Amino acid sequence: xxxxxxxLSLIILREVKMLKGLRNSFLVIVLGILIxxxxxxxxxxxxxxxxxxxxxxxxxxxxxxxxxRVFFATNSSKLxxxxxxxxxxxxDYIKSSKISVVIEGHADERGTREYNLALGERRxxxxxxxxxSKGIAKASIKVISYGKERPVNTESSxxxxxxxxxxxxxxxx
Amino acid sequence: MKKFFLTFFSFFIISQSAFAxxxxxITRGNLEPLPAAISRxxxxxxxxxxxxxxxxxxxxxxxxxxxxxxxxxGLFNIIDPKSYIQSPSIAHxxxxxxxxxxxxAQIMVSGKLVIDSKKRLxxxxxxxxxxxxxxxxxxxxxxxxxxxxxxxxIISDKIYERMTGELGYFDTRIxxxxxxGAKDQRVKKLAIMDQDGANNKYLTLGNxxxxxxxxxxxxxxxxxxxxxxxxxRVYLLNIETGMQEVVGDFPGxxxxxxxxxxxxxIIMSFAKDGNSDIYSMDxxxxxxxxxxxxxxxxxxxxxxxxxxYITFNxxxxxSQQVYVMKSDGSNVKRISYGEGLYGTPVWSPRGxxxxxxxxxxxNFYIGVMRSDGSGERLLTQNFYxxxxxxxxxxxxxxxxxxxxxxxxxxGASSSLWSIDLTGYNERKIKTxxxxxxxxxxxxxxx
Amino acid sequence: xxxxxxxxxxxxxxxxxxxxxxxxxxxxxxxTAQQLIAIxxxxxxxxxxxxFAPKAREIIEKIQKEKExxxxxxxxxxKITPKEKPKAVPLPDQLxxxxxxxxxxxxxxxxxxxxxxxxxxxxxELFDPNKIAALIDKSKEETAEIQRKQTLELTQNQDSxxxxxxxxxxxxxxxxxxxxxxxxxxxxxxxxxxxxxxRIRLKLKPDGSIMFSEILDHARMNQPGQAFYKVLAExxxxxxxxxxxxxxxTTGYEKWKDLQLNFDAKEMLRG
Lengths: 173, 446, 271
Known about the structure:
The structure holds 3 protein chains of 3 kinds.
Chain A: H1 2-20, H2 25-44, E1 61-63, E2 66-67, E3 69-71, H3 81-97, E4 101-106, H4 113-133, E5 141-147, H5 158-164, E6 166-171
Helix pairs in contact in A: 1-2, 3-4
Chain B: H1 2-20, E1 22-26, E2 34-43, H2 51-56, H3 58-72, E3 76-78, H4 88-93, H5 97-102, E4 107-115, E5 121-129, E6 134-143, H6 148-164, E7 173-180, E8 187-194, E9 201-202, E10 210-215, E11 221-226, E12 233-238, E13 244-246, E14 254-259, E15 265-272, E16 275-282, E17 288-290, E18 298-303, E19 309-314, E20 321-326, E21 333-334, E22 341-347, E23 353-360, E24 363-370, E25 377-382, E26 385-390, E27 396-402, E28 414-420, E29 427-429, E30 434-440
Helix pairs in contact in B: 3-6
Chain C: H1 2-22, E1 40-43, H2 54-70, H3 92-105, H4 120-123, H5 131-161, H6 170-183, E2 197-204, E3 210-215, H7 218-221, H8 227-242, H9 253-256, E4 258-264, H10 266-270
Antiparallel strand pairs in C: 2-3, 2-4
């Protein structure tokens, strides 16, 4: 979430620069500060617009700096910018350490059980497809969906649900 | 001419008498359950009954169970047996209707137990219309004494049928998933019980996750989903032999299984490269047919009772909605157009309605609509409830609910509930443990 | 040598135990909760018929039809629609035979063109079972209002055509209705989408007690798929019996000795 906004502010900066030229750089800097102020206040919220979890509370690590999971918006299997950044690191790690992985797809408890199984499958496959696009062999990735059966946060709250809408990459034994 | 005159004359008479008739429209009545008396049964020639049989006290237990069944249906009000005046034998042979009318009973059930010449137990019952002073049903059932619960259920069905004009649902079973343990490591077992919660039995040990069991039409087979060896697949289980097998050889997750109405096919979802479509498999020939082919999630399929149509849910429109198609996969039509999301459509055994789960503004509803999507009616609202399953008469639905959990899952529980098509008579169904994913069998004796 | 053999045996046993444990069904006892025992059922009483006088009925029905044509056009005669009601559990061999007849009944066109449905929420915000009672009350008032208008028209029609028989006054009619309402237990399991009109003809004695009563659409009661109608008709008959004797006006016996009660639960069941 935070990451998206950051990128956004960069883009705006660039556009503004092109439009007004360097002479207005002062104004641009002020604007940039304003926008980044915006995005810093947003970092305090872990569930922002699009309800994708951006915190690190439930996250585990495959290796130092390599988070094991990515989060999704409700009923969505779209990878966010933060998710692809995490998966880039995962891809590098899997390649370098030559391990096989299982990708577990999960859904929150606010859907019907059968639909959630399908949704978890779709999420796990979105991750698999991305890792494959980064050069990981299909043979070294397995996929399993748990639907809403294995929540990581068992509370019934918006925060818990956002933490449960996830895909977790697990080293296979 | 004579004929003409006659018709003219009779016409005159007819119109005369017609205008003399006062017509009154009765459009109201009371919607109270029907007051009914269930008399004790009696033993005919008790000398023939063995001591063990006498100890079973069937003359009390059978009418008691009938009373419980009828009361639970919400359509009958059983009058306290303490107020019954007549002895069970007189009630059964030649009841004095005034005595039953006195305690405001509109119908009365009597019965007797007989050991016949072949030493079989014969259970006889009669249903009396107290107000019109006549017998309206009378049947005898032969069975072994230890099947007395089923006898009571069958009698309950006959009474229900005679008083409502519809099939009953008491001689049925429910398959469900028994749950225990923490919410993030839930242990799930297949369990089966009678419709009233009696004879509860577990069919799996809980070593692997099992979900969504459903009966075949004869209630001898179950199809369900299991995570055996971490491969989520649809399984088939014969509950009489204990034999089980994987359904088909799919290179990925299969889920959401259901039998076709003739029991010959299983319809389910198969997730291929993350995309769930609907497939059917013929159990005898093993022929697999792909019925939908769409990059969206297509799942929760359910056949119409004539097997000619399939309803399912899909998010091809951008959100989860209910669709109907022909059983060969053609003519896909969306039928749910209300606000919110619609899932788990199940076709009523009567064929007229489709029950569903609706998610709207953070609440879950169980509702019904006609098979063309019109006439949507929501029966119950809750924090979380889903997966309705029809009683064989298409009048009652069973489903499960989950409670809202506090920090670290405190207060999380799941339980089975039933509700009438009218939205009345919502009842919790008692299970020894937490429970989910209930499915109703058809009538066992039919 | 011995070591390797015993090791092999050990591993084999371990392997067997492992497979046993990982099999999903370790339970070897019969799983069935209760073996299904065939229970024979026989009828011990004849299915009783409701009382009706065949000849009298024919004549009366004829009169009814003619009368309805001329006077009460609003009230269509009960339509008999055989209801599609497949057995809950069709056995595979029964199904073939059944399929034929089902084909006739259920056309593919039954799944109609998509009709945009306005959400139930637009009408009743959030569904609350407790509100049903209130809704019913409202519909009661409405139907009562409609009926009042209809009967008004009816009496006006009668007045203009025949001046001899005025029948009974509205307040007298309401008094009779109120009595029957209390006596009638509407069966709760009725289909809500069928014609539910039961017409009962009464002949009263001067003291309001019932000389005889009969159901006018008797034929429908024993038609297949109309079992609910029999149930409904019987409930109406019970209502009449429970209300016997009716409290009737002390005068004008000639005007009210012949009554026809039209029982229609439709509005109440729709909620």
